[in-house]
């Protein structure tokens, strides 16, 4: 189980260990900061500084996974990066209020156990002071969550390679599967289309318009109301005075081309 509670495997295990390590580091930093403050002010018991720092660290330890989960929804692809930054800053407002309430409750209880009193300062100045620290902590933890997702998140499934294109042409009781580069051209033949292939000519019961649409992604272009050619099989194009043209195929066959379709052949050639 990873940060989302549903991830499994090596990535999810790494994320669990990362969360544990971050929690340990937060408490270790709290202890070091408290002892440093105690060294700077010997008149205050070290236990008081420890209570102050550890209660704050406890809040962020408890909020670590929720922050990571919410942050996932506040960054690309859900939001743009500028929107993400604005959303995280907006999130810092309820976060600091929750933090203040946590500190007021936990510190009051801990100080009472030590025989002392504690009262959280709810003034605007104190809340602004806490917000500056909490906003930076939120951005730091959200950035850490993004980094961990990049390092240990589930890998995107590889997209399957599409099968090579084959044109299905019925040939009596059989269906021939013809690759695009095995077709030279196709011409209307009544209710059929005659397809010239490396294996000979085949009659395909389809309109030339429908066949042209199916073969267009594979390098085929209409040159005449009755003819369709594969651009890779064209050897020469000769213009005529009327605007029409003649297309010579690689095997020497010459097909008429209409000026109506000249632009399509030109675009295919470029």
What does this structure look like?
A 5-stranded antiparallel sheet has the order 5-4-3-7-6. The protein has helices at residues 9-40, 46-72, 81-113, 124-152, 208-215, 262-269; strands spanning 166-171, 174-179, 183-189, 192-197, 200-204, 220-224, 227-230, 234-239, 245-249, 254-257. Helix 1 (9-40) runs antiparallel to helix 4, helix 2 packs antiparallel against helix 3 (81-113) and helix 3 crosses helix 4 (124-152). A hairpin with a 2-residue loop joins strand 4 (192-197) and strand 5 (200-204). The two termini are 53 Å apart. The protein is an alpha+beta fold and 270 residues long. The longest helix is centred in the middle third of the chain and has 33 residues, at 81-113. The relative contact order is 0.08.
How would you concisely characterize the structure shown here?
The chain is of the alpha+beta class and 270 residues long. It contains six helices and ten strands.
Features:
20% strand, rod-shaped, disordered N terminus, alpha+beta, 270 residues, 5-stranded antiparallel sheet
The N- to C-terminal Cα distance equals: 53 Å
| Number of E-type strands | 10
- From the spread of the alpha carbons, the general shape counts as rod-shaped
Mean pLDDT across the residues is 88
Helix content estimate: 40-55%
What's the helix-strand series? HHHHEEEEEHEEEEEH
Percentage of residues in DSSP E strands: 15-25%
Radius of gyration, taken over Cα atoms and rounded to an integer in Å: 36 Å
Unreliable spans: 1-8
Characterize the largest beta sheet: strand count, sense, and whether it forms a barrel. 5 strands, antiparallel
Number of alpha- plus pi-helical segments: 6
Structural class: alpha+beta
Strand order in the sheet with the most strands? 5-4-3-7-6
